[in-house]
């Protein structure tokens, strides 16, 4: 692949220099056209790096790591639009379907939720009164009042932590959805800078020929690779934060107990499930798992 790409670069080099090929020419030729990718692509702006001057231009292990971390935004056989071609000092960005999550405007921020509840003035006064009180009965009565206030404060903190957990889960879910719909990109790298001979449509096509079908629109008989029937083959369930209550119920059956607590801004559900060797306790905020624990028999 490396020799093939470099050979084509050398063959088109003279015409590129004569015609003064530039980024504008690549943009005019590619942007807006539909292509078909021949590999799964990660849902991130890091995309797929193609290093044409190396013996192995594409590091598939690195592609696998990015796919595992960011998910697949464009699948093998998908037809997608070329949305941007950008020439930098040492690489050419060939962006598809938006270029991947992480470009301008993609950031999902998690709202900052303060989970600390300070002691009230009454609680502070009761702490002092308990220390000073010498009458056992009165001291016991004051201690009971103090314990009630502490319990109320701890309950408020627990609610705030649940709110923070909910905000984090929702933000991660939103980011995951954005990643799956933000496209991806190929990055054509040149160690000593982008050469003039690379700035032609023919050279870019040659560099990406192993990974992109540029003739998709002109080949009506092209066979699209068969995809697995995802409606009939469900993914293996993995208990983790972010799954829904319905998914947990499908895996473990109806809960043994299910307590619903309406908090300030959301609903907290605490459910227990029977396991073969113990019991699962799960907490859901607005139907999304935020905390769980497993106890053995």
What is the fold's blueprint, element by element?
Blueprint: H1 2-19, H2 23-30, E1 34-37, E2 41-42, E3 48-51, H3 60-70, E4 72-74, E5 79-87, E6 91-96, H4 121-132, H5 136-180, E7 184-189, H6 201-208, E8 212-213, H7 245-252, E9 257-262, E10 267-275, E11 278-285, E12 288-296
Parallel strand pairs: 3-7
Antiparallel strand pairs: 1-5, 1-8, 2-4, 5-6, 6-7, 9-10, 10-11, 11-12
Order of helices and strands: HHEEEHEEEHHEHEHEEEE
Strand arrangement within the widest β-sheet reads: 3-7-6-5-1-8
Number of structural domains? 3
Report the count of strand segments. 12
Notes on the structure:
The protein is of the alpha+beta class. It folds into three domains: 2-104 and 182-218, no CATH class; 121-175, no CATH class; 245-296, Beta-lactamase Inhibitory Protein, Chain:B, domain 1 (2-Layer Sandwich), CATH 3.30.1450.10. Helix content is 37%, strand content 23%. A six-stranded mixed sheet has the order 3-7-6-5-1-8. The protein has a four-stranded antiparallel sheet with strand order 9-10-11-12. The chain has a two-stranded antiparallel sheet with strand order 2-4. Strand 9 and strand 10 (267-275) form a beta hairpin. The model is unreliable at 2-20, 218-225 and 230-234 (pLDDT under 50).
């Amino acid at each position: 692949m490396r020799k093939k790409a470099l050979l084509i670069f050398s063959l088109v080099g003279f015409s590129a220099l004569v015609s003064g090929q530039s980024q504008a020419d690549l943009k005019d030729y590619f942007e807006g056209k539909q292509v078909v990718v021949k590999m799964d692509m990660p849902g991130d702006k890091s995309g797929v790096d193609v290093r044409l001057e190396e013996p192995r231009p594409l590091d598939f292990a690195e592609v696998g790591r990015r796919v595992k971390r960011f998910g697949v935004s464009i699948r093998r056989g998908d037809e997608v639009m070329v949305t941007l071609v950008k020439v930098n000092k040492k690489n050419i960005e060939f962006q598809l379907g938006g270029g991947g999550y992480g470009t301008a405007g993609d950031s999902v921020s998690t709202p900052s939720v303060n989970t600390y509840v300070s002691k009230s003035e009454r609680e502070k006064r009761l702490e002092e009164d308990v220390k000073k009180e010498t009458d056992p009965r009165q001291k016991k009565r004051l201690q009971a009042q103090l314990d009630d206030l502490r319990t109320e404060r701890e309950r408020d903190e627990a609610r705030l932590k649940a709110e923070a957990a909910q905000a984090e889960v929702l933000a991660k879910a939103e980011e995951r959805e954005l990643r799956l719909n933000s496209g991806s990109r190929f990055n054509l790298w040149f160690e000593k800078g982008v050469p003039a001979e690379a700035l032609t449509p023919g050279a870019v096509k040659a560099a990406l020929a192993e990974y992109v079908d540029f003739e998709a629109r002109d080949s009506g008989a092209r066979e699209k690779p068969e995809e697995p029937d995802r409606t009939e083959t469900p993914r293996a369930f993995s208990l983790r934060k972010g799954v829904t209550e319905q998914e947990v119920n499908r895996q473990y059956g109806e809960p043994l107990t299910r307590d619903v607590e309406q908090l300030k801004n959301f609903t907290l559900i605490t459910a227990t499930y029977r396991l073969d060797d113990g019991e699962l306790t799960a907490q859901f905020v607005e139907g999304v798992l935020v905390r769980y624990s497993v106890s053995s028999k």
